Amino acid sequence: MKRRALLLVLFALVMITWRVSFAQDTIPFVPSPMHVVHRMLEVAEIQKSDILYDMGSGDGRVVIEAAKKYGIRAVGVDLNTDLVAKARENAAQEGVGHLVEFRAQDGLTVDISEATVVTLYMFKWFNNALRPKLQQLKPGARVIAHDFDIDEWKPTRIEYVKSPEDGSDYAESRTLYIWIVGDTPPMP
Question: pTM here?
Answer without folding.
Answer: 0.82
